[in-house]
Design brief:
Strand content: 25-35%
CATH superfamily: Histidine kinase-like ATPase, C-terminal domain
Number of helices: 4
Structural class: alpha+beta
CATH class: Alpha Beta
Helix content: 25-40%
Shape: globular
Oligomer: single chain
CATH topology: Heat Shock Protein 90
Strand order of the largest sheet: 1-2-3-5-4
Order of helices and strands: EHHEEHHEE
Length: about 140
């Protein structure tokens, strides 16, 4: 169900360059989900997706940035996360989306898990240029 175009009400950006940054991102995304009006279950879904994606950018992409956007559209509020890195890119998207696939660290829930936790999911990856993952979740679906 589409409720019209989304307007970005608030946009914040965070560096993802250290373990401390990963913790900062978790807290920032949790606060943003509360601000957006999500219930506890959806807060946890969004924070979990953000954690997985930020960790991927940090470990595989050599660090990057996370943009957190609070969205408004008729009948719903939402949150959009955009994680960008300038790493080597994802050589095999099919494998990367498979549950349990891991390149050696992490839970192996990364991209596939994030896709299931969010309402919208898009990956743009180019070898040698980096990866951008954009996900969104809405209060009303």
């Amino acid at each position: 169900m589409h409720h019209g175009p989304a307007q970005v009400a608030v946009r914040r950006e965070y560096e993802v360059r250290s373990e401390d940054d990963l913790l900062t991102v978790r807290h920032a995304v949790r606060a943003a989900t509360v601000e957006c009006g999500f219930g506890l279950v959806d807060q946890t879904r969004v924070v979990t997706a953000a954690s997985e994606l930020a960790r991927n950018a940090y470990i595989h992409g050599g660090g990057g940035t996370l943009s957190v956007e609070l969205l408004k559209r008729r009948g719903a509020d939402g949150i959009r996360l955009v994680i960008q890195d300038e790493g080597p890119g994802i050589p095999d998207m099919g494998a990367a989306m498979t549950d349990g696939w891991t390149s050696g660290s992490g839970l192996g829930h990364g991209l596939g898990g994030a896709r299931r936790l969010m309402d919208e999911f898009h990956v743009d990856t180019r070898p040698g240029i980096g990866t951008t993952v954009t996900v969104a979740r809405w209060t009303v679906r």
